Amino acid sequence: RSNSCPQHSFHFSSFCSFHFIRLHPTTNNYCLAFPRRSHLLLSTFSTMVEQAQPTTTTASASTDEKPQLVKSLQDLTIIEHYDRGATKPKATTFFHITEDEELYFGETAKSKFDTTIEEFNQALERVPDEDVWPEILPGTQLSLAPEGLTEESAFLKRPEIISFHPGGSNNDMIPRSILRETLIMEQISRSPHPVFIRYLGCRVRRDRITAIWLERHDITLKDYVETPGFKNLDKGKFMDSIDSAVYHLHSLGLAHNDINPSNIMVKDDMLPVLIDFGSCQPFGYNLDSLGTVGWYEKPFFTSEKEHDTYGLKKLREWIKNPE
Question: Is residue 96 helix, strand or coil?
Answer without folding.
Answer: strand
